Amino acid sequence: MGGNSGQAGGHIYKSLADDGPFDSVEPPKRPTSRLIMHSMAMFGREFCYAVEAAYVTPVLLSVGLPNSLYSIVWFLSPILGFLLQPVVGSASDHCRSRWGRRRPYILTLGVMMLVGMTLYLNGDTVVAALIANPRRKLVWAVSVTMIGVVLFDFAADFIDGPIKAYLFDVCSHQDKEKGLHYHALFTGFGGALGYLSGAIDWAHLELGRLLGTEFQVMFFFSALVLTLCFIVHLCSISEAPLTDVAKGIPPQQTPQDPPLSSDGMYEYGSIEKVKNGYVNPELAMQGAKNKNHAEQTCREMTLKSLLRALVSMPSHYRYLCISHLIGWTAFLSNMLFFTDFMGQIVYGGDPYSAHNSTEFLIYERGVEVGCWGLCINSVFSSLYSYFQKFLVSYIGLKGLYFTGYLLFGLGTGFIGLFPNVYSTLALCSLFGVMSSTLYTVPFNLITEYHREEEKERQQAPGGDPDNSVRGKGMDCATLTCMVQLAQILVGGGLGFLVNTAGSVVIVVITASAVALIGCCFVALFVRYVN
């Protein structure tokens, strides 16, 4: 019949993605340059994250934010992200934009990040120029800065899911693994460059005097890096729009010899709709019904229905989400309090003493050295991400996952029990191992699960691939929203622990204990595909 017909029993399934009518379901191999371009979004995102980590506390203090509002600033964004990520992830699975399913959401969230940075780094200056009344100026400055911080955190946390789903949609299995390694590599580079930029005293340099303050200097660099990185990312790999699979069947064609239409026919889970270069009319008509069902699902989509879908997901997805939650809880417990730990415990300073006292100056020195430790973490995260692709052939994903949690647990435990400047800085490299592990291994496992499910659908041609509101976007979003849940747990629990213990050492010990529990969990409960 056609030049692509296989032998009996050896069917070749075709899909109209973005490269022509005879592409296989497995997307074409992508050049390394395209995967690097795709990874630039992670570079820009992490650069801006590092700038926020360095400047958000000074900004909030400079505008006079009351202590009672700190919890609102740090809790509102992760709560919103945890509740809304699966909704947006599922909506992107059914998005029918001509530009693709993921890129419209990535562009929107990127703009939100830029607006958030604009508000929290420049809000005080703009409000001071527009409002003269001191009381009104304080209220507006605090409000604008809070909105900026929450908006930036919300968008920056949210955007990881669509970026990962975009990679999974347009890449072959091997390119997905390479792409995830490049993502982690450029995440580390972006964080390191952001921390280094934040460590420079811009106020005494010509650029600082030209732009006004160091806040404006960092906004200039952050906005420039973010804009350029996201333009490169969005132009990296074209997406196939999700279109009606039934459009490719003219009514006069018969089931005996239905030629392949030139209209786009690609949708998530549609493996059997095109076979050996010809449309299967029965499956295409079934696809039309599925499309109507999907549209009805989108119209009736509620948080309750999505929670039902999440609860009914396969157990191995749930266990992976739990392991991701454990890992991020341990990692954030250490990272959010690390500079304070360096200032108070390692250097012996006192943040509550007078600002011109020796104890406070010692504390500030410890915080500065802690920032260099975070920079070491970012650099080693990049290096380890590069070597992961060689290690995985020897120890597998299970070995990588277990090793990341184990090294982090042992390293943080040693730092908590034996605080020393040089050993602490050296062990910051293990933070990078954990960071790289969290950014790559769980998403590699997601791709393995999806690949296995696609093979099962090939073996069961009568199955309905769209019988659920779950898709790649929702799976990535569900995994990503574990980060927000970890932020909620850390923000709500560690303050109580520190007040009870009377020392921030308890934070590092807790991070170690949680990571070692995670070792057992990833070894015993997480499912690894052979």
Topology record:
Blueprint: H1 32-62, H2 70-93, H3 103-130, H4 134-158, H5 160-170, H6 173-199, H7 206-211, H8 214-234, E1 274-275, E2 278-279, H9 281-299, H10 303-311, H11 315-336, H12 338-346, H13 358-417, H14 421-459, H15 472-501, H16 505-524
Antiparallel strand pairs: 1-2
Helix pairs in contact: 1-4, 1-6, 1-8, 2-4, 2-15, 3-4, 3-8, 5-15, 6-13, 6-14, 11-13, 11-14, 11-15, 11-16, 12-13, 13-14, 13-16, 14-15
Verbal overview:
The structure is a single chain. With 530 residues, the chain is mostly helical. It folds into two domains: 29-239, Growth Hormone, Chain: A, CATH 1.20.1250; 303-457 and 471-529, Growth Hormone, Chain: A (Up-down Bundle), CATH 1.20.1250. It is 72% helix and 1% strand. The chain contains 16 helices and two strands. It has helices at residues 32-62, 70-93, 103-130, 134-158, 160-170, 173-199, 206-211, 214-234, 281-299, 303-311, 315-336, 338-346, 358-417, 421-459, 472-501, 505-524, and strands at residues 274-275, 278-279. It has a two-stranded antiparallel ribbon with strand order 1-2. A hairpin with a 2-residue loop joins strand 1 and strand 2. Helix 1 (32-62) packs parallel to helix 6 (173-199). The longest helix has 60 residues, at 358-417. The two termini are 36 Å apart. It is found in: Membrane.
